[in-house]
Design brief:
Blueprint lengths: L9 H107 L1
């Protein structure tokens, strides 16, 4: 086994510095490649998200239009029901008039029959 040197020479230090510089250059190159790849994937994802968002908006718009149409039908039904209730109210008003008239006639008849006695 060789014994490690106790002294560093300028040549050895220069070699060490050169090796470290090469290592950092390699790391920097890898980082640049990763940055470019992440940027490319980010742009791709943005496009995909935008496309899906537009598709989702279109689907939601179609669903809301269907719901609006259904609500319009329900509104028409309620209008028809309201019309029926107005007709019933008019009929009840007539019946109440007849009942009150009949009641007044009965009361007048009773009073008249008592007056004759």
């Amino acid at each position: 086994m060789t014994e490690p040197r106790k002294e560093w020479t300028d040549t050895r230090l220069d070699d060490l510095k050169s090796g470290i510089d090469k290592g950092f250059d390699s790391v920097n190159s890898d980082i640049r490649e990763l940055h470019a790849e992440v940027k490319k994937q980010g742009e791709s994802l943005r496009g995909e998200i935008k496309s899906q968002g537009e598709s989702l908006r279109s689907e939601m718009k179609a669903c809301f239009e269907k719901l609006d149409a259904r609500f319009d039908k329900i509104d028409a039904r309620f209008d028809k029901i309201d019309s029926h209730f107005q007709t019933l109210d008019a009929r009840f008003d007539k019946v109440y008039g007849v009942i009150i008239g009949a009641g007044v006639t009965v009361v007048v008849a009773l009073i008249g029959s008592q007056a004759l006695l």
